[in-house]
């Protein structure tokens, strides 16, 4: 994983209307990892917060909107992967009135982040984890709100509804904002790197990060998000996309191709290498079919981390053995 950029980098803040702004957390590269800031009636919420290195930029963005740290009621993390929730503990330390909203399956890991640290180290290596994510600050359990499916909270009188959306991770929810008819999708609606957009519009690819990729659950979750009839999906990687039906179709097809790749490689002695090569080939093919106007080597650079994560995630899925039962 690449180095996080320095905290002095000024935040890139984009207004999306309806009191919503996307803030670049500065993680990995520009327009890779977003936090979303919602403001209603002078009260604020963040949805996903990047890493501890992102916190100064997020607070600067809040200040640029004319709000003090005391105006933040909610810090919401779509799931506890560290590019979404790594900065949650430090944010809570800096926001005296905020409560942290997290999936019931993720809550204990933000109170005691030792397992998150161990999990990230297993995927990225100890040294890279320290460099990319810095420290994980534990959160006082009295400030944690667990949001099960159907949970609704109010931001300055504006309802935000939580949908349990397993598939990318079992500790993942998405957040529905009826006021803007937008869905905050975390990683459930995949990744849409802006560099890979074409005349056809936004590019999307699924993320099968270890260790809880479940293809059937992911497809059901995508259906559930689309069934709301959103005007926009707000992805953490990277922010607003609007062609919801077309992108959902692309995602479903791509998940199917990853599953077929996994099944074809399973049981073979060179499974790991086959998966890496196969994922790289599929992802490049998707970008080419989409008409992405970048040379192959640049597409490869942009998607390198996702080759590794998606291949590792397919391996952990195959190791659980659920694929055989589903055949
Ligand atoms: Zn994730």
Explain this structure.
The protein has 327 residues and is α/β, with parallel strands linked by helices. The chain has 11 helices and 13 strands. It has helices at 55-64, 82-85, 88-94, 107-111, 114-124, 126-133, 215-227, 244-265, 271-290, 296-320, 322-326; strands at 13-17, 20-24, 34-40, 43-47, 72-76, 99-102, 144-146, 152-155, 158-164, 173-177, 182-186, 232-235, 239-241. The strands form 2 sheets. It has a 7-stranded mixed beta sheet, covered by helices on one side. A 6-stranded mixed beta sheet has the order 8-9-10-11-12-13, with no helix packed on it. Helix 7 (215-227) runs antiparallel to helix 8 and helix 8 packs antiparallel against helix 9 (271-290). Zinc ion (ZN) binds next to loops.
Give the termini separation. Answer: 34 Å
User: Taking strands numbered 1, 2, ... along the chain, how are they ordered across the largest sheet?
Assistant: 1-2-3-4-5-6-7
Quantity of strands, as a count:
13
Gyration radius, in Å: 19 Å
Q: What ligand molecules are bound, each kind once?
A: zinc ion
DSSP helical segment count: 11
- Fraction of residues in H or I helices: 25-40%
* Sheet of most strands: 7 strands, mixed
The amount of beta strand, in percent, is 15-25%
Overall 3D form? globular
Return the string of H and E elements. Answer: EEEEHEHHEHHHEEEEEHEEHHHH
Sequence stretches where pLDDT stays below 50 over 5 or more residues: 1-7
Q: Given the helix and strand composition, which structural class is it?
A: alpha/beta
């Amino acid at each position: 994983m690449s180095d996080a950029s320095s905290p002095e980098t000024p935040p890139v803040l984009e207004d999306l209307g309806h009191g919503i702004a996307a803030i670049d957390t500065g993680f990995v590269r520009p327009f890779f990892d977003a936090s979303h800031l919602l403001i209603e009636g002078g009260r604020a919420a963040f949805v996903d917060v990047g890493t501890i290195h992102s916190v100064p930029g997020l607070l600067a963005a809040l200040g640029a909107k004319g709000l003090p740290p005391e105006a933040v009621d909610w810090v919401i993390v779509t799931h506890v992967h560290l590019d979404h929730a790594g900065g949650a503990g430090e944010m809570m330390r800096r926001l005296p009135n905020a409560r942290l909203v997290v999936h019931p399956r993720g809550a204990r890991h933000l109170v005691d982040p030792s397992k998150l640290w161990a999990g990230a180290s297993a995927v990225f290596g100890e040294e890279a984890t320290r460099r990319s994510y810095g420290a994980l600050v534990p959160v006082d359990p009295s400030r944690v709100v667990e949001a099960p499916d159907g949970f609704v909270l109010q931001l300055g009188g504006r309802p935000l509804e939580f949908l349990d959306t397993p598939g990318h991770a079992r500790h993942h929810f998405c957040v529905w904002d009826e006021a803007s008819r937008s869905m905050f999708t975390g990683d459930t609606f995949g990744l849409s790197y802006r560099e890979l957009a074409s005349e056809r519009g936004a590019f999307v690819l699924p993320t099968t990060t270890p260790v809880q990729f479940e293809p059937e659950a992911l497809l059901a979750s995508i259906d559930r998000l689309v069934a709301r009839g959103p005007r926009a999906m707000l992805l953490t990687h990277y922010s607003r996309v609007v062609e919801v039906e077309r992108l959902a179709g692309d995602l479903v097809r791509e998940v199917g191709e990853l599953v077929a790749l996994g099944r074809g490689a399973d049981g073979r002695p060179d499974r790991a290498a086959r998966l890496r090569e196969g994922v790289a080939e599929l992802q490049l093919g998707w970008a080419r079919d989409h008409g992405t106007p970048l040379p192959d080597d640049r597409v490869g650079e942009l998607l390198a981390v996702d080759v590794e994560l998606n291949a590792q995630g397919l391996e952990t899925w195959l190791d659980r053995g659920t694929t055989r039962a589903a055949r």
